[in-house]
């Protein structure tokens, strides 16, 4: 039987307490912060009859209209079936239309509707407002530092994932439906 001194027992119980405290877990903090940002943003863009699931495809298409479904999926880091569902809903909402490629009939390009183009300015203003709210308690220097540190964390985890899977230059694609149910990660070379 191993006996721990009072000091060692205290250190061990403090370590366990820290491990059990979700608010000290970086993954939890990032996930919770992301959830709150999305809630705030989605509530505001809903006033313009835009679903939350349309936000990121709109952002991608505002940067470059006429991408294929695969190109949108690659830019968002999600599966093509997930993008297909998003595009289907966006089409129903009058935000996009599909057009077959004249040169390669197999390809279908996604184009913004005139209505979606008009939404760009007000929705980006809403996005800026949410970002300002999120950063309101930080100095400009702290804001830059936070962005830099989050980018480093993202890069470290992306590298770790590639190493864990033994894949060089692999693309990671998350299926958000599966992720919500418990996490299925699909990789594509």
What would you call the structural class?
mainly alpha
Give the topology string: H per helix, E per strand. HHHEHHEEHHEHE
Q: What topology, given as strand order, has the largest sheet?
A: 1-3-2
**What is the number of strand segments?**
5
Mean pLDDT: 85
Show unreliable segments. 168-172
The proportion of residues in beta strands is: 5-15%
Specify the biggest β-sheet. Answer: 3 strands, antiparallel
Spatial extent as radius of gyration? 21 Å
Kindly report how far apart the N and C termini lie. 52 Å
Helix content: 55-70%
Report the total helices: 8
Shape: globular
3D architecture notes:
The protein has eight helices and five strands, in the order H-H-H-E-H-H-E-E-H-H-E-H-E. A hairpin with a 7-residue loop joins strand 2 (96-100) and strand 3 (108-112). Residues 168-172 have low confidence and may be disordered. The strands form two sheets. Strands 1-3-2 form a three-stranded antiparallel sheet. With 189 residues, it is mostly helical. It has helices spanning 6-20, 26-45, 55-63, 69-76, 80-92, 114-135, 140-164, 176-181, and strands at 67-68, 96-100, 108-112, 171-174, 185-188. The radius of gyration is 21 Å and the shape is globular. It has a domain at 138-189. Helix 2 (26-45) packs across helix 6 and helix 4 (69-76) crosses helix 5 (80-92).
What's the helix and strand layout?
Elements lengths: L5 H15 L5 H20 L9 H9 L3 E2 H8 L3 H13 L3 E5 L7 E5 L1 H22 L4 H25 L6 E4 L1 H6 L3 E4 L1
Antiparallel strand pairs: 1-3, 2-3, 4-5
What does this entry show, briefly?
With 189 residues, the protein is mostly helical. It is built from 8 helices and 5 strands.
């Amino acid at each position: 039987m191993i006996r721990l001194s009072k000091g060692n027992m205290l250190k061990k119980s403090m370590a366990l307490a820290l491990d059990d405290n979700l608010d000290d877990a970086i993954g939890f903090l990032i996930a919770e912060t992301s959830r709150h940002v999305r809630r705030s943003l989605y509530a505001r863009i809903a006033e313009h009859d835009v679903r939350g699931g349309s936000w990121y495809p709109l952002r991608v298409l505002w940067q470059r209209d006429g991408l294929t479904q695969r190109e949108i999926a690659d830019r968002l880091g999600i599966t093509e079936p997930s993008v297909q569902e998003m595009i289907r809903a966006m089409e129903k909402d009058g935000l996009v239309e599909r057009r077959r490629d004249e040169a390669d009939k197999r390809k279908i390009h996604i184009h913004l509707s005139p209505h979606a183009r008009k939404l760009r300015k007000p929705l980006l203003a809403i996005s800026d407002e949410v970002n300002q709210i999120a950063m309101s308690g930080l100095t400009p220097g702290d804001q830059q530092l936070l962005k830099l540190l989050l980018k480093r964390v993202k890069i470290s985890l992306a590298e770790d994932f590639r190493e864990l899977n033994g894949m060089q230059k692999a693309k990671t694609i998350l299926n958000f439906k599966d992720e919500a149910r418990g996490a299925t990660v699909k990789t594509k070379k």
